[in-house]
Amino acid sequence: MDIIIGVGGTGAKVVEAAVQLATIGIGPTELRVGFVDQDKSNGNLNRAQYALSNYIEARSAWRGPEGSHKLHGSEDCPILRTNIETIDGGSGLWVPDERSGSTLSSIFGAMQEDNYLFDALFETGKVEKDEEQDMPLDEGYRGRPHLGAAAISARANSGSGFWDAITEAIKSVGSGSRVNIMIAGSVFGGTGAAGFPTLARIIRDRLREEKISSNVHIGGVLMLPYFGFPDPDEDENQNVARANEQLMQSRGALRHYENMLSSQHIFDQLYLIGWSPFFVMDYHQPGAGDQRNPALLPEMLAATAVHKFFTAPAAPDAEGVQQINVSARANERALSWPDIPAMGTNGSREFHEKFGQFLRFAAAFKYWKAHLDDDSSRKAVHKQAWYKAQGLDQLDWQNNSPSENITRLDLVVDDFIRWCAAMEAYARKDANFTFNLWNVMGMVKGVDFKRPNQDAEVAISLSDDDYAQFFESVVSKHGTSDDPMPDSAELADGLTEDSFEDEHDGMGSMIAALYTYSSVKEV
Amino acid sequence: MAIYNLPPLTNEKFADPDVTGVWEPSGRLDDMADSLVIAAEEVNIDGLKSLPDPWARPLLFSQALTTKGHVAANDARAQWRGLIALLALRNFFRDSYILQLVNYDLDDMSLGNPGFRRMLRQLMPHETISREADWSKMGVITFQATSEDVFATGEPKAIGMMVPNCLVAPARGARKIIHADIPWMREGLDDPIRCEGMSGDHWVALHNYLGKLFLHLNQPGLPEEAKFIRDQIKAFAEDCKARMAEASAAPYDLEYEAVTDVLPNSFYAPLNNIPKQPDISRGPKSQALLKLRTREDGQDLAKDIASGIILIDPDFADRTLGRPAQDIRIWGNYTLRDAETPNILAKIAEDAAREGYAVITSDALLTHKLTSINNDGRVDAHMKEWANFLLPISPAALLLLGRENLNNQLRLIDKGDAYEVQLDLDVIPGSPREPAMTHTVIRRYSKKDGMMSKGINEDLIFWPNISNADWPWTFMRYSFNPNYDMRPRFAVSGKSLAAMIEVRAKDSHSGGISLLRDLASPNDLVAERGDAFFAGDMGEIKDGDGNLIMHRTAFADLQTAVGEQHILGKGAEALFFAATSDEQGEQVPAGCILLPKNTRPTQQGELHVAVDFGTTNTVVYASAGRDAEPVNFANRVVKPFSHMGAENDVFALDCVEFFPAHEQESPFPTVMKRRKFDIQGASSVQRLASFPYHGMADMIFFMPETEQKLKETLKMMEGDNLVFQLKWDTDPKVRRMVKRFLRQLILMSSVEAMDKGYLPENIKWHFSYPQAWRNTQAHDFKSSATQAWKEIMGPICGPKAQAKDYLHFETEGAAALRYFINGAEHAGQAGSMVAMFDIGGGTTEIALFKDEQTIWRSSFRIAGGHFFTRFLANNHEIFDEMGDSEFGQAMDKYGAGKSMQDMVELQVSQTDFNAKFDQSYTMFSDTDIGKGLRYSAATALAGMFYYTGLVLRKCLSDGVISKQDVHDITVAFAGRGASFYRQLGDVQDADSYLGQLSAIISDVALVSSGDAESDNGWSPSSARLTGLFSSQPKHEVANGMLCDPLDISRTRVTNATPLGEYVTMVQDGTSTEMQSTAAIEKIDKDARLDMLGDAEFLNFIELLKLRLGLNIAVDSKNGVAKREIDNKARRELNRNLSDLARDLDDEDTEDTQEIEPPFISKLRALVEILSKPVEERKEMLVVKHGDPRW
C-alpha cells in the first residue's frame, strides 16, 4: 500500500501534483491520500482536494465497477490508472484540532508542574508576534513549526480516523504486504514545516510501538523555498527580504534535519526540491482560503519523487538507510524534458511520453468532445468514418449516455491543463527562462499574475485550426533530434482506421483511441 | 551549466551536480544549509522559528553555537553567555536575583501535564554532548528578581534550561526578562562581554567559572560535539580575560560553593558549583574609599565612627582610575555603574552603613551654590583666591581634609561665565603596592545662577587664638541680623565631627553614618533639622566619656538680632554658614570659612601659676622655675573675617562680654560682670549657671579700652551688672561667682601658658588667701578654686587627676613675705629682722621674719580700701585735683553709696592711676582733702604699726627676738595700699612723715622694756628702721608664691595674736580679764565680751600726736566717734565669737584668723570715720595737725 500525506499547503500541492500525474497514468496502482492541515480552509488544500475529488470521480466513472463506458487496463491507456482513495475513506484531511479558537494551551490543558518547561519552550506574550501558547490556531501555525510540531504530536495521540487508518496500514505489513508512506511538506511556513518531520517521527514511533522494523518505508518530499511573494503593502525590496527570511528558516531547518537524521532513523528516502531562481508571485495571502497558490514546476518534480519512491522502493538491504535525494537540470535558465528527474531508467523520456501524450490527448479531447456534446453536434458528424469506426453510432445516447463520463473526464483534463498552464505561465514569466516542456497557454484564457489565486480558465472547445496547432505544439520534443510528433491528421486517421472496442467499453474505446493517437511517437 | 532543483546555493560546500534529470543522493544537509545564498548577515535568534520541533529552543541554540556562520550565532551566543553568567555570578548578585532549578523527568507521568510530557518524550531530540545526560531528564532554570520587600519580589520566570546538547539554553522569553541591576540584563538577557557595568571581580569569577566548565567538557570520551560547546566556553573565557585586563583585575583564589539544587544529571554539576563572593579582606571594601584625615596618633580621624567613606563620583572612573565605571567596585559586588541607579545607590548606602561605611556622592562634598562674600574685607585664613568666598564644602569634607589641606586642595578657577571648583581627595590604594591616588571632584558654578552673594555677620568672634590639639575650650560668639546676614550654622573641627558621629554611632553604625550623611547634604540643613542640639535656647552634645563636644547658648533671639555662644570642646577649624536661597527662599548650606590655625607646639616642663585673688584687684603670675613674671592676658579674640568695622566700639564692648578684646595686664579688678540675655521667654536662662562652662552667667569684668569706657562702665554699674567685693561677700551666689571668676582665670591663664608652649596639664596652680579670713571663708575659697580647676582642667587632665596634686594654697602674708625675703628683686636688701606690711585693698598682711624664720604672721581687714579708696570715693573732688574731672563729674552723676567706692576702685585699678596720682599729689597735699587723705592713711598705717609693736613686745618678752632685733627692723611695704606711703618720705628718714610713723613700731615694742622714756607714758625709741618698698605694688603675693621653693609659710614661732586691747570675757557667769598682749586664740568660743578697754587705743592716739603731730580728738563732738568705734569693736568681737561657735565642726587647719583683735576693729572704725567726706567727718570728731612732739 502506498500512502501519500500532504502536510500543510505546500504538501497539499505536492499531493495535487501526484494526483495530476496519476491522471496521466503515472502513479502506483493503489494510493491512499491524506492531508494534514490545521487550516482546513487553506486554498492549496482545497484545490488539491478538489483535484483529488475530480480524479476519484473520473476514475470511478471510467474505471469503476458501475457503468457502460469503461477504460480497462493500463498499458495502452494508463490514464486514471491509479486507484486513489482517501486514507480515511472520508475527506482524507486530518485537522489536528478542529475546535474553533483552539490554542496550544487549550490542546494540552493545565500544565501543573510543567508550567516552567512550557514557558521555556513556548513563548507567551501580550502582543501577537510574541504569542505562542495562546495563539489561535484556526489559521494554522503561522510560521511557527515548533508550535505545530507540539500540537500535531499531541493531537496525533488522541485518536482519529486518519491515524487509525495509518495504524491499520502499518499493522497490515504483518500479513506480508509492504507499506510505503510518503509525506510531503515544506521546510518553510507553519503547518507543513511542523508536520513533515513530526508525522514521520510519530509514525516511526508507532512502528517501534508495534515492533515493526521492515516493510514499512517512510519517504519524504521536503519542499525548500522555490517561490517568493511580497505582502500587498511591501515593495520589491521587502519581497527579497521575505525570500531571505524563508531561506534563513530553511537553513535552520536543514541543519536541524541533518542533526536529527544523523541521530535518528526517520526517513528511508527523502527528496529535497526547491528552485532557483525563485518563481515570483505578486501577492501573498497568509492562511485561510485565499492561500491558493498557483502550481509551480517544483511540485511536478516532487510528484516524480513521489512516484519514484512508490515505484522504486529501497532494496531490502537498505532497510534503515536514509537516502536523501536531490535533482538537477542542465541549465539554470532553461528546463527541458531531459531535466525532469527520472523515475527509473530512461525515466525522463518515459515521463515525457506520458506527459506529452496526455497533453496532446487533452487538446484532442477538447476538440473531439465538442462533436459529441449534444444531439445536433453528433448529428453533424454521425455519418463520418471516425464516428462509426469508434462505434459511437452504437451508443444509446438517450438511455446510456456517456455524457457523465465525458464530463468527469473533462474536469480532470481541465484540472490538468490548468495545472500545466500555471506551471508554464510562471515559468515563462521570467523572460530569461526558457521553458521547453509544453505550451498550453492557447488552451486557457490566460493566467492573471495579479490574481494568482484564480485558476486559469480552460477553453471549452478548440477550433479546427487551434486544435491542429495545439496538438502539434502543446508539448515539446524530448530531444531536439527526436522525430516530429504525429499531427492531428494522423490522429484523425487513426480514429478512422483503428478501434479499441474490444479492450474498452462504450465511450472508453473512443477515449482510448484519442489517447493512443495522441502519442508523441508514431503509433 | 547544470543546477540543482534547489534554492540558490553557493558551491563552496555543496558541489555542482554531476548529472541532471535524475534523483541522486544529496550531500550533507548542513552543507546545503550553509550553501544557501542568504543576503542577511545576522538575525536575532528569537526571530528564527524554522525548527519543526517542540524542543526547537535548545536545538536552535545548539545549532547557532556550533555552526560556523550561523545567521543567529551572535545573538545566540549573547543569550547563552548571559545565562551562564547568571549561573556563575549568583553569589555576586544575590540582592538582585535568585535562580532556581526545576527538574523534569519526562518519564514520570504522575506529575505535570501527561500529554505535554508524552509529546516532548515522543519528539525528544537525541543530540547530546554527554554520554550520561539525555533529554528525558532536564531542568528549567527560573529567574526571580529579588527585593528587600518580599511583596515587591518578582515572580519566577523560566529563563533557561539545562539541556544535553549545549549545557544550557536560554528559554523562549529570556530576552524579555529585564533587570536594571544586572548589567547584562538591562535590555534583556545579553552577552556580559558587550555590556557595561561589570566589575573586575565579576570578570575574574566568571573567567574562573568558565575554566571549570571547560575542563568539564574536556574530559576524554565525550562526544565529538562537545568540542563545539567547549570552544564556545573557551572563547567566552578569553573574552572575560580581556575584560579583566581592561579592569586591571588580577586573578585571585576563589572559593566555590555547590548550590544545593538537585540536578537532572551529574553532567550539569559544574554549572551549580559557583564562585563565592571574594573575601572582602582581600582588599579595600571599595575602590572608591577615601582616605580619612589622620589623627595625631596616626589613626584615621574617624576610625572609630566610620570604617570608611566611599565616594560616588562618575568622574572617578575615567579621570582617576582610568577604568570604566563598571570596573570600579563601590561596595561588595556593586560597581560605580550600579551606583548610577538611584535605588541601587540607596541600597549600597544602606548595606555599607551596616558595616560602618558611609557612602556619599561628590555632590555631597560641595554645596549647591557658590557663595561670595559681599562685605568689605577678607577671610584671613583663606588663600588669596578664596578670600572673598565661602569654601563651598559640606561639613563632611572636614573628615577628609583639614584646614591646611583644604587651602591646598580646594581650588577656585575662573572660567569666564562660571567658576570651577576642584577638590582633591586622597583615595586609599587598592593594595599597599599601588601608588596613592588623588581624585579631583569638580563642580562648576555658573556666575549667572550658580552663585549667591551674601554678607558675613560682623559680630563674629572666636576665642582663643591659640591652643593645642586637645584643648577643650574653644568659644564662639556671634550675632546676626536674620533679615540680612548669613546665619552661622556651627563651627566644627574634624575631631568634633568625628566625636559627634561617634556619639550617634554608639548603638549602631547607622546612626553615625546617618549623621555623617546629613552633614553632607549639599542643599538642605539636614544636620540641624530635628536635632535637639539646635532646638530652643541651648543644647549640648557630649562624647562617650562625658567630655563636651559642643555647647550652644542663645543669648539673643530678637527680630533684628539673633545671638549665640558656642563652646567647642573639640576645637574648630571651620565655621559653616547657611544662607537664604534666592530661588527657594529657605535656608540652605552656603559653605564655610576656615578659622585661623591656632595650635602651638608644646614643650616639656612644668609651669607654676599663682593667683592672688585680691579684694579689689587680682594678680596672676607664672614661673617655670626661673623668675616669676606677671601673666598678662593677651587679646586672644579671633575675628576670622576682617572688615572695616572690626575695631569699632561696639565690637570691643561685645568682646568684653565674652573675653577681653585687648591685652589685660595684672593686676586687674576683682569684678564680675553679669551677662545679659535677650531671650524671649527666659526660662532657659535660669538654667545657665548650672552648666559648668565659662561665659554662661557672668564673667570677669575687663574694663573696655574705648574712649567711652568710663561711661560704658558706669552704665553697667547703673544696671547692677557689675559685682564688686567678691572676696569678702559671704552670699552663696557671690561665692559661686568667685568660683566662676577663678575658673575664667584658670581658663585664660592656661591659654597664656599654651602660648608659651606649656601643656595645661603641666600647670601647678597656686592660690593665696588672706589670713584674716575665717576658717570657713578659706575653706569656701579653696573649694571654689578646686571646683573651678576641675571644671576647666578635668577634661584635660582626665578623671583620675587629683586636684591636690595640682593646687596649692597659702596665705597672702606668707607669700608676700617670701617675695621680700627670697624674691630676686629684694635679695640682700632686707635685714635679719623684717616687718612686712602687704597693704592690699581689703586686708593688710603683716609678717615678722627673723633669720629665715617667720616668727609671726597675720592679716587684718584694714587696707587701702579703707583709708584710700573710700576716702577718694567720699571726697571725689580729689579727682578734680588730679585733673580727672571727667571721672569727678561721672561720680557726681552716677556715684552713690557703695557704688561710688566701686567706681573709685576701678579707677584706682587703672594702670596709669599711680603715675597720675603721684604727679598731682603734691599739688593738693596741703588742701583739706589732701590732708584728710594723709590723716586717714597715716592713721591706718600707724595703727598697724602700733599693733605690730605690741606683737614684738610679746616676742621680746617671750625671748623670740632680742632688743637688737627691734632696733634693726626692715619695714617692708607691699601692696597697692602701700603705694600712697611713698608720698610720705622714707622709713629710715627719722624726720620724714613715714620715718616718724615707722618708729611707732619700736616705740610700742620697747616701751615695757624700760628703753622708752615716758612722756605721758611714752618715750621715743632709737631704733634704726629701714624701709623697703616693693617696686610693683600688689604683685608681691602672686610673685611671692612662686619665689622660692622652700615652704616657709607655716614656719611660725609665735602663733599668738595679741588682742591689742584689754578685755573682760564672760563665760558661764565667770569673768576673765585678758591683757592687751594676750592672744586672741586664748578666748574660748563660748565666751562673750563683757568689757572692752581703751587704754591701748588711747595710747595709740597719743603716739600719733607725739610722732606725727596728728591730734585726733576721739572724745570731741560729744564722743560720737568714740562710741561708734567702741560699738563696732564690740560687735565685731561678739560676731566673731558667734561665728566661731557655729563653725565648730570645721577643722581648724586653715591659716586663718577667726577673731579680729579688738584693737584692729577700733582702728578700722576710726579710719572709716577719717575717710568720710571731710565735712561729714568734722561733724564726728576734731582732727588737728601740729608739729610732732618728737
Q: What descriptive keywords fit this protein?
A:
heterodimer; A: 523 residues; alpha/beta; Rossmann fold; 3 domains; 8-stranded parallel beta sheet; two-stranded parallel ribbon; 16 helices; 12 strands; 43% helix; 11% strand; globular; B: 1190 residues; alpha+beta; 6-stranded mixed beta sheet; 5-stranded antiparallel beta sheet; 47 strands; 20% strand; rod-shaped
Write up what this structure looks like:
The complex is a heterodimer of chains A (523) and B (1190). Chain A is α/β, with parallel strands linked by helices and 523 residues long. Chain A folds into three domains: 2-100 and 143-327, Rossmann fold (3-Layer(aba) Sandwich), CATH 3.40.50; 103-136, no CATH class; 349-516, no CATH class. Chain A has helices at residues 8-23, 43-63, 104-108, 115-121, 145-156, 161-172, 191-209, 236-263, 297-311, 347-369, 375-381, 385-389, 403-429, 464-473, 488-497, 507-516, and strands at 2-7, 30-36, 83-86, 93-94, 179-186, 216-223, 227-228, 269-273, 279-280, 323-329, 334-336, 434-436. In chain A, the strands form three sheets. In chain A, strands 1, 2, 3, 4, 5, 6, 8 and 10 form an eight-stranded parallel beta sheet that branches. Chain A has a two-stranded parallel sheet with strand order 7-9. In chain A, strand 2, helix 2 and strand 3 (83-86) form a beta-alpha-beta unit. Chain A starts with a strand and ends in a 7-residue tail after the last helix. Chain B is α+β, with helices and mostly antiparallel strands. Among the domains of chain B are: 1-39, no CATH class; 49-281, no CATH class; 289-594, no CATH class; 1063-1185, no CATH class. Helices cover 32% and strands 20% of the residues of chain B. Chain B contains 30 helices and 47 strands. In chain B, the strands form 14 sheets. In chain B, strands 28, 29, 30, 32, 36 and 37 form a six-stranded mixed beta sheet that branches. In chain B, strand 39 (844-850) and strand 40 form a beta hairpin. Chain B is rod-shaped, with a radius of gyration of 47 Å. Chain B starts with a strand and ends in a 5-residue tail after the last strand. At the A-B interface, helix 4, helix 5, helix 7, helix 8 and strand 8 of A face strand 1, strand 2, helix 1, helix 2 and helix 4 of B.
